[in-house]
Amino acid sequence: METKHKKKELTVDQKIKRRNFISFGIFAVLSGAAYEGWQWLYHSPAEEQGVTAGAHKPLRRALNKTELFFRNFFSNNHLVKTYPKERAAKNVRHNSDIGSGGTPNLDNYMLQVKRLSGEVLNISMDQIRALPKTEIVYDFKCVEGWDQIQYWGGLKFIDFIEHFNLAGDTRAAYVGLTTPDKGYYVGLDMPSAVHPQTILAYEMNGKPVPANHGAPVRLIIPVKYGIKNLKRIGSINFSNKRPPDYWAERGYDYYSGL
Length: 258
Ligand SMILES: Nc1nc2c(c(=O)[nH]1)N[C@H]1C(S)=C(S)[C@@H](COP(=O)(O)O)O[C@H]1N2
Ligand SMILES: [Mo]
Description:
Elements: H1 2-8, H2 12-43, H3 57-73, E1 110-114, E2 120-124, H4 125-129, E3 134-141, E4 147-156, H5 157-163, E5 174-178, E6 185-189, H6 190-193, E7 199-204, E8 207-208, E9 218-220, E10 235-239
Parallel strand pairs: 1-10
Antiparallel strand pairs: 1-2, 3-4, 4-7, 5-6, 5-10, 7-8, 7-9
């Protein structure tokens, strides 16, 4: 056959040229595709500012997928490791006091709960202390690299929900918490908020929580890094939108799970 015959006659030099041509063609097509992909990502809308630190939507979607994986991976039955009380640190480490500096006014301290319906409840510390107390000794971890075995006591968040008839509000996707002055705020996914080891802590080492550790009540959420353990809770709200989160706005992972 004519063509077959011609092919046979290609010199080594011609063969190299042809291969180079094909390689370059593939390279050009792939480069083009990569550039198009980059342009698509670059021009894709940024996620809501202030909530997810401005990642482009496709990237955020990928991050959310990983989040989901970890969320399912650690189900509600998965408990954080606990320790005997003797292992708890006597000198509890202290970190930043954004929104919780100074001494709070402990007389008439009220915890505000904003329900999905818009209804607002004001709950006193006496009401909270009157309910069964839960204690936990576990390894508290800060994203800055330190960890310490600590002993906390308070009201399980899920018991709080049940006692104040807030079960209906747990159909919301998130819980948001803020300090009374709104200087520090965190958002939590509902499964972590209702996790059996999450507590509204009013005791540290068996005594009332000191001012610099979040008096009169702070969040202890062992399935999360320290940043989510908001000190001095002023208000709690339920929401289907991601509540604003102080450190997520500054580039930290919104989920911040262990
Ligand atoms: N209100 C408020 N809560 C906060 C913080 C803060 O600056 N303000 N810092 C968080 C961080 S980063 C950590 S590690 C823990 C530290 O708690 P501690 O001071 O009791 O050790 O609190 C968290 N809760
Ligand atoms: Mo931290």
